[in-house]
Please model this.
Amino acid sequence: MTFFLAFLLAFIATAVFTPVSILVAKKFDVLDYPRARKVHRQPLPRWGGMGIFAGVLVSLLFLSFVYPSFKSFLAYKSGALAKLLTGIAFGGALVFVLGLFDDRKPVAAPVKLCVQIIAAFIAMDYGVRISGLALPFFEGFITFPIIVGQIITVFWIIGFMNTINLADGLDGLAAGIVAIASATFFVVALLQGDTKMVLLSKQFVLSAVLAAALCGACLGFLLYNFNPARVFMGDSGALFLGFMLASISTIGTLKSSAVLALFIPITVVALPILDVALSIFRRMRQGMGLMEPDKNHIHHRLLKFGWSHREVVLLMYVFTLILSTCSILLTVFRGK
Model:
């Protein structure tokens, strides 16, 4: 019931608050105007991330302060789970605010990176960290030195944020991919939750609740963002979604002692990761700045081949679903 409530509240709240975000964006002239590398033909609001953030926030606040079973769940072991949730909330709020400013007026790349690092450290300070992994060709669970774990966690969180941000290139693309990814993380968390370690088992449950809320928010946003879109999520939405996915996988999948745990979240978002890798290689080869935009992403190339906007997005959904299914199968048949 908790999972369904997290999903439903996030879906409804996002569906309600996204039209509000459209009005606010128009009032403050935070619009995405058509340009050479854009595929839309008219100015569109780009503060849709407000609706996504509000949806997740309403869902988690209701569960945390109103729903009895979740309140008692967070109180376990002197509030260890509440601490995790607080760190994720603070870090997510910080990158959301960063995105709001960047959508209004571009923020310098070094400043954006610094804020993302700070958000990652906030989450780590509250317990969202990769302290070790079960790696191929190594026996048992490898515990990292503190500094190594911190570096890996920062790269993990920043990597997810910027991967989702770069994937936000077509109507409904990023929101749909994150909806599929979060639904996959939800299933994976439930499958992994059979561990005998009580605290770890409860972390998997928290991961599943967050994934359910994130999935509901993305689907609620798609009501307005699927082609033809009436609003864009902007950096505020993309950075927040990437941060949440990274946090969910960190307290969920990566806590497993299974050797394949590292590959499960990577497989789910393999398509946007591949796109990012190809973009970096392409820009380095052409002498372009790594953050300089272009129209050579996978989805742009498919559009040039004559695919329609919706066909490209649906194709990307299908590929993500296939990869997500592979991740679930990896979890089912993982080594114990």
Observations:
- Residues 2-332 form one domain.
- The chain has one domain: 2-332.
